[in-house]
Amino acid sequence: MIVRHRILVIDDEQVVCDVVKEMLGSNDNYLVVAEYDPVKALTLLKSSQFDLVLTDLMMGKHSGMQMIQAALEQNSDTVVVLMTGYPTMENAIDALKHGAYDYIVKPFKMDHLMATVERGLRKQMLARENIHLKEQLALFKIAEAMGSTIHLGTALNQVLRLTIKEFNADGASILFHEVVDSGRFVLQAIQTAHYASVDREFLEGRTHHSQMAAESRVVEIENLYEDVPGEGDAPSQTHIKTYLSCPLLIRGRVIGILNIQRQSHYREFATGELQCLKVIASKAAYAISNSKLYDDLEKAYLSTIMALANAVEARDRYTSGHTVRVTYLAELIAKELGWEDDRIFILTMGCSLHDIGKIGVPDSVLNKPGKLTEQEMGIMQRHPEVGARMIEGIAFLKPCAPFIISHHEQWDGSGYPHGLKGDGIPIEGRILAVADTFDAIVTDRPYRRGKSIEAAIQELRDFAGRQFDPDVVEIFVEAIRKNREKLDIIYNLEGDVEEAKTAPVKTSV
Predict the structure, then answer these.
(1) CB atoms within 10 A of CB 127
(2) Please, where are the H alpha helices in 243-321?
């Protein structure tokens, strides 16, 4: 199939229009329209799209600069060539500043005209192919990224990182409709590449752009232009700051807004880029929608898990709130280790279920106020294996197994149930062992009163390298230092918080 390029010729001299139309019309690949009335030409430019526009510079009350502006507003990748009988350097620079591709001097020869037109259209085709390839690559990256995660927070940040990279943006954000007040948008995620140049009010949804995109269900764009003087003899540059709000649609319903801000020295968003963005926004909307559904499902699972954990705690009157506290402490360690959200979610489930096997421990053993006999201790020490068997066959809970089975293993190999040693103990078990023991030391038990946070830290350090992974202990001590005030509230303790904040902390290599 032959691709015919649409060309518009504008000149207030009809004879020039007819000659240029005849020259270009000799090429079957060109569909040429000529207009010698500048007013009608402007109407054509605003109502139709052309691949290339040839326009005279001076046309009575109208100028070629007006034609350039109208053509590029309709389609930013239109190639505009200026025809002029007044070839001054000032005119040339002015035309190029306004977005013209090139200019030719009247009178011109046919081969010069054809060469300029062919060169301009070839450049346009290469640019469009590049945009198309960029679109395909961006879609592939979005699909690949979305396939690697099911959690909403991770999905949102991946969309933003890719958007900033692919569209050379300074900042991007995603907002969702507020459930309570459907007329308001709430910020869900934000990313910036160049903090100094971003407009936080726009990215946070506090300007009119997001609401306009939601109401119109189309991409809303505002371009602000600023001429910045060049240095020395260099010409001034036009800076274009673009505010772009793209609705995220699911079956015609707006679920959110993707905001993008970009500052460019040379051009606005091209038509091809906008088409690419719309496709990416569509893919991202479905990925985000699926992630939200999955997050809701996970919350339902977590509620069930917490109900099971609470059932265990309800039987043990001495460990009320133990599971919640230990989960919080383990999360502090995991964050210090740089764990991603997906892995921390598994940690939350694993910590919540780590003592689930105590369901199989009789009340007489579980709540015995004195020291356990050897036989009773044997019963208690079976709870990790009982818990691991309880979640067997439940695919969703399989990643929780290391927390359940190994949180009583010890660094020197003297723990249970399998006597694992050193790095042979899963990191999940090593983290939980430290958090679990810290909570046990600080809280009251039937056979003793709880100790201070400082005493608990010292005890963990005393047994580091024997009972506990020494690196995990020091990471935990650092996490305590950073979160000391909150821990004092959780454990209802009084201590010298400032002293704890400034106290030196050992580090392990």
Answers:
(1) 14
(2) 271-315
Give the tens place of pLDDT for each residue, 84-129.
887 777 777 877 888 888 888 888 888 889 999 999 988 888 777 6
CB 495, CB 504: distance < 8 Å: no
Fold entry, domain 149-287: Beta-Lactamase (3.30.450)
Give start-end residues of each CATH 1.10.3210.10 domain in the chain: 316-502
For 316-502, CATH number out of 2.60.40.1120, 1.10.3210.10, 1.10.10.10, 3.40.50.1820 equals 1.10.3210.10
Six-digit token pair at 496?
């010298």
Write the burial class of residue 10 (CB in 10 Å: 0-12 exposed, 13-18 middle, 19+ buried): buried
- And the tokens for 313? 């705690």
Residue reference for tokens 């000391």: 484
Q: Two tokens at 332?
A: 């502090």
Domain 5-126 is found in CATH 1.20.120.530: no
Contacts of 125 (CB under 8 A, 6+ apart): none
Which DSSP category does 373 fall into? Answer: P
Phi, psi for residue 84 in degrees, rounded to 5: -145, 145
Q: What is the pLDDT of residue 187?
A: 86
**Whole-angstrom distance between the N-terminal and C-terminal Cα of the chain?**
68
Residues of the chain with CATH 3.30.450.40: 149-287
- Is the pTM of the predicted complex or chain greater than 0.90? no
> What amino acid is encoded at 68 in this protein?
I
Cβ of 229: how many Cβ atoms within 10 Å? Answer: 9
Q: Is 492 exposed, middle or buried (0-12, 13-18, 19+ CB in 10 A)?
A: exposed
Sign for the CA dihedral angle at 20, 26, 32, 34 comes to positive
pLDDT in tens, 366-383: 878 778 899 999 999 999
What tokens were used for 115? 């060469």
